[in-house]
Write a structure and sequence with these properties.
Chain C: GO terms for molecular function: asparaginyl-tRNA synthase (glutamine-hydrolyzing) activity; ATP binding; glutaminyl-tRNA synthase (glutamine-hydrolyzing) activity; transferase activity. Chain C: Heterotrimer of A, B and C subunits. The complex is a heterotrimer. Chain B is of the alpha+beta class. Chain B is built from 3 helices and 3 strands. The longest helix of chain B is centred in the N-terminal third of the chain and has 18 residues. In chain C, helix 7 packs parallel to helix 9 and helix 12 packs across helix 14. The chains are: A alpha/beta, B alpha+beta, C alpha+beta.
């Protein structure tokens, strides 16, 4: 069951080959048995999942079911869920049960999806290895000594290990695409504003976007169909019609113009990773695509720009965690300052504190122009690079991550080297563009992701382009040993 | 850009984080390294570039002036660390 | 040394919306603590702000009322600081691009001269909650009902040179916001709070002195006294060899003094930056036209019109345009009675006195505008004398019905029957021969005695003009 696509599961559920309750129990059993090895879930919500599955079975019986009805999914623990703890991977919210549902959660519940639980993540989505979680690191199912990537590492590992059919993630600088690449799954970060941010705990508001982590582009399309759309509660939500992503999957890609930015194939890219990426590009050529070399001259500056913009926004977004209305509060505060300082120092881990401090610094009097304003200007140049590129090409391709998964503990003492993992993914967030990662041939048994970047609101084309590759190849079907 | 101990103390206070004295050096070196990375921005002349605060070129949507929320105090305060008579409690604030 | 005072004001006026500026929580004064604080107002994780259209409309209306530029594009920014009444750890305000730009208002000084005071800007922002310092076992209680209430902060140029000018300016702004219906201006409930930046400099010096900011003054009287005290304090300080420190001070009304707020060791560093949860506010011609479509006549224009149309003095016109309600009341009386000058006298005289004495608001006045107009008509047509009219007014005030009903029930109708008056006068002349003799021998002053007797005899109801005429005729014989 765990290897079936969403389309197959939906068909089986309709034919009563098995019920949603049976399917849910199957996944719960796998989680109980296999997740102790991976630590991909923070919370397993078995009881509420079974209630939802029963309701889904009723809907299936009465013929009111949609394509997601009864399908077991998992939410990244950044989405607020009423009645299930929402920790954001932090001690700060270890005791936090949100009094409301995120829009994404609400929409998927309305579509009849069954929530198995909440997945582990880097604390407040700050990290590229899932090692900053208060709940401990997640392990990569392809090699349990390696990281799954981050920040949506729990969702990536859970999908790769077949512990849920599909999962949600969020992507601020690569947090869907990079773990998808490192875990050998398909991840899509839609255009900024495509999915509502309401109820998604903010890291960097102008960069955060919800998306999907799935085993295939087709599965991702089913989920995105339900998640995407305008939300009046989010001022930054785009009021742009949502096409049917599933419908668009089968379109041909003959004549598709693929841009390869030379900056994405330079120093720092593992040569073996480069080789399998080139093989994947050749596959696209065989499928009738045309390759165009392009340049994104300002993209090497995306990491420095990001480490100004994202910390600045996060330092302000995380100021609300003060031990007063919810969340961690220190014992016996002496006075107000003590309440703030100790609650926050105890509640936040080292990486979150680093970023809060960087953010406070770059916004502070005397430094604003040199850092924040400068970064916002270069951000404009980076977006303009893409604008010019998309006048020439339909999609842009390159590696998602410069290397395959690295050993747990390898980069924890060196924040800057950790940050450079996101060198190929960050620019899309700065520009607000949609991006995907799909598995290609592995290197030494470890997955490699091909990144596909599209123009604004062109998710349907991204999914179509990814699906056509997956139609012609089998890399996305590979399962890690022991989790088949 | 090298930050020293006193910079870290200042920033930590601004961000209301209790940083233990033995952690200060470590944060000073980490933050200095990050700022060195960030300093790559200096290579670009941006004097004629408009800052971009937002990826999408949209205007703020306006909400009709209608009360839509009802009282949920008990619900919201059920997750609060310390309340009394409907108030959130903090250590005495002296004005 | 001669000193000159320099004052600028920042006025926070609460906008009269139904819901908060960024959330759908209701706004009502005096609700139970935290019952009007929704997830957005509490700053729960994952919540997002959406801007209230009415707040923007109100800001635009104000801008237009002070001849200010309305920014076609304005930006909300975050002002970052930690305080328990500030749930998100930042206040959403406007910093670099406020919705209302430079404008101006005119104030009338005591000597009648008109002075223009510049308004630097006005911007939208959210209010904070309230800290309650009563003892909760050594804790402070936080009520976030007020958090997210829309405010318009109106910042003046440092154009005022005396406490009186500052009060005149503050009153002018108060008058405008109430006229155009964007705020109830209720000072007790904190809907109109003033901060005064005060400095002194030697007369003739161009550079400003160091200023102190007096925070959160909530009455015009206190504003005047606080500034007065602060000016004297600064002069004494400088003359005593000291220097003024730039700081925030509070006015203590009980002691009539300002005192320094305990200053934190570091200066505030608010780290303003554009709020990434909110997009630029764009105000196009359509929005502008809609916002000001029903903008009422403003106080200055109304005052000028009252002088021109009704022939009122500047003083009376100023008095009667103090509030929109009073001006409307007056206009109804003037129109219905056809006697604007009498209407002005009655409204500013008898009516205001009665309202003040009984502490009744105009909208609750027992004497409506049409009732007062009815009375004036009866004065005009001679039914009641000017003197007895006050008695009629009193009768109406006390629920005796309209003017005609009171005149009827209290028998206050003027006597204009010449025969009746003649008969009365004949009797008085007959009864006072000595006085008649004195008058006829040239003692003109005694004439008043006869008028008094006649009026007394008639119970004050005899028409005075007729009495005069008949007396003169009869006494001359």
């Amino acid at each position: 069951m765990q290897n079936k696509s969403i389309a197959q599961l939906a068909a089986d559920l309709r034919l009563r080959t098995y019920s949603s309750v049976e399917l849910t129990k199957h996944y719960l059993e796998r989680i109980a048995r296999l997740d102790p090895r991976l630590n991909s879930f923070v919370t397993v919500a078995a009881d509420s999942a079974l209630v939802a599955a029963e309701r889904a079975d009723q809907m299936l019986k009465s013929g009111e079911a949609g394509p997601l009805t009864g399908i077991p999914i998992a939410h990244k623990d950044i989405f607020c869920t009423q009645g299930i703890k929402t920790s954001c991977g932090s001690r700060m919210l270890d005791n936090f049960v949100a009094p409301y549902d995120a829009t994404v959660v609400e929409k998927l519940a309305a579509a009849g999806a069954v929530v198995l639980g909440k997945t582990n993540m880097d604390e407040f989505a700050m990290g590229s290895s899932n090692e900053t979680s208060f709940y401990g690191p997640v392990k990569n199912p392809w090699d349990e000594t390696k990281v799954p990537g981050g920040s949506s590492g729990g969702s990536a590992a859970a999908v790769a290990a077949r512990l849920c059919a599909v999962a949600t993630g969020t992507d601020t600088g690569g947090s869907i695409r990079q773990p998808a690449a490192l875990c050998g799954i398909t991840g899509i970060k839609p255009t900024y504003g495509r999915c509502s941010r309401w109820g998604m705990i903010a890291f960097a508001s102008s960069l955060d976007q919800a998306g999907v982590m799935a085993r295939s582009a087709a599965d991702a399309a089913f989920l995105l169909d339900e998640m995407a759309g305008f939300d009046s509660r989010d001022s930054t939500s785009a009021n742009v019609p949502v096409p049917d992503y599933v419908d668009a999957l089968d379109d041909g890609i003959k004549g598709l113009k693929i841009g390869l930015p030379k900056e994405y194939f330079g120093d720092g890219l593992d040569s073996r990773v480069a080789a399998v990426i080139q093989d994947a590009i050749k596959e696209y050529e065989r499928l009738g695509a045309e390759i165009v070399e392009i340049s994104l001259p300002n993209s090497p500056l995306s990491v420095p720009v990001y480490y100004v913009v994202a910390p600045a926004e996060c330092s302000s977004n995380l100021a609300r965690f003060d031990g007063v209305r919810y969340g961690h509060r220190c014992e016996n505060p002496e006075d107000l300052e003590d309440l703030y300082k100790r609650s926050r120092a105890e509640g936040f881990g080292a990486e979150v504190q680093r970023r809060i401090m960087i953010g406070a610094y770059v916004l502070s009097a005397g430094y604003y122009d040199a850092y924040y304003l400068k970064a916002q200007k270069i951000r404009h140049l980076i977006a303009d690079d893409f604008k010019r590129a998309f006048e020439q090409v339909d999609v842009i391709m390159g590696p998602t991550s410069p290397t395959t998964a690295f050993p747990i503990g390898d980069k924890m003492d060196d924040p800057v080297s950790m940050y450079l993992n996101d060198i190929y993914t960050i620019a899309t967030n700065l520009a607000g563009l949609p991006g995907m990662s799909i598995p290609v041939a592995p290197v030494d048994g470890m997955p490699v992701g091909l990144q596909i970047i599209g123009n604004y609101f062109d998710e349907a084309r991204l999914l179509n382009v990814a699906h056509q590759f997956q139609h012609a190849t089998h890399w996305h079907q590979a399962a890690p040993a022991g989790f088949e | 850009m090298a930050l020293d101990r006193s910079d870290i103390e200042k920033i930590a206070h601004l961000a209301r984080l209790a940083i233990a004295p033995e952690q200060t050096e470590r944060y000073a070196s980490d933050l200095s390294n990050i700022l060195d990375l960030v300093a790559q921005m200096d290579a670009i002349d941006t004097s004629h570039v408009e800052p971009m605060a937002h990826p999408l070129h949209m205007a703020q949507r306006l909400r009709p002036d209608q009360p839509t929320e009802s009282n949920q105090r008990e619900h919201f305060q059920s997750i609060a660390p310390l309340t009394e008579d409907g108030l959130y409690l903090v250590p005495k604030v002296i004005e | 040394m001669q000193w000159e005072t320099v004052i600028g004001l920042e006025i926070h006026t609460q906008l009269a919306t139904q819901s908060k500026i960024f959330s759908g929580a209701p706004i009502a004064f005096g609700a139970e603590p935290n019952t009007q604080a929704c997830a957005i107002d509490l700053g729960l994780p994952g919540v997002l702000p959406v801007l209230n259209e009415q707040a923007v409309t109100f800001a635009v209306r104000f801008g237009k009322s002070i001849e200010a530029e309305i920014a076609p594009r304005s930006i909300f920014a975050r002002k970052n600081y930690f305080y328990p009444d500030l749930p998100k750890g930042y206040q959403i305000s406007q910093y670099e691009l406020p919705v209302v730009g430079k404008g101006q208002v005119e104030i009338v000084l005591d000597d009648g001269t008109v002075k223009t005071i510049g308004v630097t800007r006005a911007h939208l922002e959210e209010d904070a909650g309230k800290s309650l310092h009563e003892d909760f076992q050594g804790f402070t209680g936080i009520d976030l009902n007020r958090a997210g209430t829309p405010l318009l902060e109106i910042v003046s140029e440092p154009d005022m040179r005396s406490p009186q000018e500052a009060v005149a300016y503050a009153k002018k702004i108060h008058q405008i916001v109430r006229y155009i219906g964007i705020s109830d201006g209720n000072m007790q409930e904190g809907s109109f709070r003033m901060d005064a930046n005060v400095s002194v400099r030697p007369v003739g010096q161009e550079a400003f002195g160091t200023r102190a900011e007096i925070k959160n003054v909530n009455s015009f009287r206190f504003l005047e006294k606080a500034i007065q005290f602060e000016v004297e304090r600064q002069i004494d300080l400088i003359e005593g060899g000291g220097t003024v420190v730039q700081e925030t001070r509070l006015y203590d009304a009980d002691k009539d003094e300002t005192r320094s707020m305990r200053t934190k060791e570091e200066a505030n560093d608010y780290r303003y930056f554009p709020d990434p949860d909110l997009l630029p506010v764009e105000i196009d011609a359509d929005f502008l036209a809609r916002a000001i479509a029903d903008l009422p006549e403003l106080p200055d224009a109304k005052r000028a019109r009252f002088q021109a149309d009704y022939g009122l003095s500047e003083y009376d016109a100023g008095l009667l345009t103090a509030s929109r309600e009073l001006a409307d009341y007056f206009e109804t009386v003037a129109r219905d009675s056809g006697e604007p000058k009498l209407a002005a006298n009655w409204v500013s005289g008898e009516l205001m006195a009665a309202l003040n004495k009984t502490e009744v608001e105009l909208d609750a006045s027992p004497v409506s505008a049409s009732m007062l107009a009815g009375l004036i008509r009866r004065i005009q047509d001679g039914t009641v004398s000017g003197k007895l009219a006050k008695q009629v007014f009193e009768g109406m005030w006390n629920g005796g019905g309209d003017a005609d009903q009171v005149i009827e029930s209290q028998g206050l109708k003027q006597i204009t029957d010449t025969g009746a008056i003649e008969a009365m006068i004949d009797a008085i002349i007959a009864a006072n021969p000595a006085q008649v003799e004195q008058y006829r021998s040239g003692k003109d002053k005694i004439f008043g005695f006869f008028v008094g007797q006649t009026m007394k005899q008639s119970g004050g109801k005899a028409n005075p003009a007729q009495v005069n005429e008949i007396l003169k005729r009869k006494l001359q014989r």
